Amino acid sequence: MANTKIPHATAKRLPIYYRYLHFLSDAGKQRVSSTELADAVKVDSATIRRDFSYFGALGKRGYGYDVENLLAFFRKTLKQDKLTNVALIGVGNLGHALLNYNFHQSNNVRISAAFDINEDITGTIQSGVPVYHMNDMKEQLTVQQIEIVILTVPAPVAQEVTNELVEVGVKGILNFTPLRITVPNTVRVQNVDLTNELQTLIYFLDKFGSHNENDA
Ligand code: ATP
Predict the structure, then answer these.
(1) Please, which pLDDT band fits residue 2 given cuts at 50, 70 and 90?
(2) What is the rounded distance in angstroms from the CA atom of residue 139 to the CA atom of residue 145?
(3) Which of 153, 159, 161 to mutate to test the pocket of ligand 1 (most atoms within 8 A of CB)?
């Protein structure tokens, strides 16, 4: 089951389902129908049933889904049952904001180390996270068994920093820089280009108003 191959679009919806199931569980709800879920997470119920079907028959007709079962299943699939340490590279404005952001509250992810080349901040603790010099990156990532990094360096150095990360064995990069970095196919990149997202939103609002174009 852990190795079930699921479509990328489905994988991207899992954290949304997970968050809502958490909410239901906290509210003491024991079961939920795909229609209720659909209303809450704004994904149509057929898509939800199809998404869930990739993991086998998790729901029962006329009963819906058992909230705790589903939650336990997602926790496992999304590796929420263990704490994942990640590192942040580039403690500028965006880097600082992400250090301050409490990932740990919503899921078991924690930034446990940050890296920079600016000696004004290396050797300090920012928002509870130690900032190391890039020279210590390999050692720290190895010791702390960190395989995932958040990249918030300036775009002109993003590729050279990425090459260093690949060299030390990083497996996943959350890329906040506008540069589409190149990595070998053993490394996974998720791009979060805030400026681009905002411009896309402005474009769609301008062209289509508020009608939601991204269902399904
Ligand atoms: P932003 O809002 O994008 O974070 P900023 O103006 O605060 O912008 P940038 O110039 O984008 O800062 O740099 C972000 C951080 O990346 C800075 O703290 C900078 O010292 C750091 N940095 C620059 N080059 C490197 C590098 N090669 N390796 C690691 N960190 C770097």
Answers:
(1) very low
(2) 10
(3) 153
Helices (H), the chain: 8-26, 34-41, 45-53, 67-77, 93-100, 103-106, 137-143, 155-167, 194-208
CA–CA separation, 165 and 155 (whole Å): 15
- My answer on whether 151 and 182 are in the same domain is yes
Tell which atom from ligand 1 comes closest to the C-alpha of 118. 20
Entry pTM: 0.73
Write out pLDDT tens, residues 77-136.
777 677 889 999 999 999 999 999 877 555 678 899 999 999 999 999 999 899 999 999
- Tokens 């496992």 — which residue? 76
For residue 207, the model assigns a pLDDT of 84
Q: How many whole angstroms from 152 Cα to the centroid of ligand 1?
A: 7
CATH number reported for the structural domain that contains residue 188 in this entry: 3.40.50.720
Give the end of a domain, one of 39, 55, 77. 77
* Sign of the alpha-carbon torsion through 195, 201, 207, 213: positive
User: Starting from the edge strand earliest in sequence, which strands make up the sheet with 172-175, in order?
Assistant: 125-126, 129-133, 109-116, 84-89, 148-151, 172-175, 188-191
Q: Which residues carry a binding-site annotation?
A: 90-95
Across 146-172, average pLDDT: 97
Q: Regarding predicted confidence, which is higher, 25 or 172?
A: 172
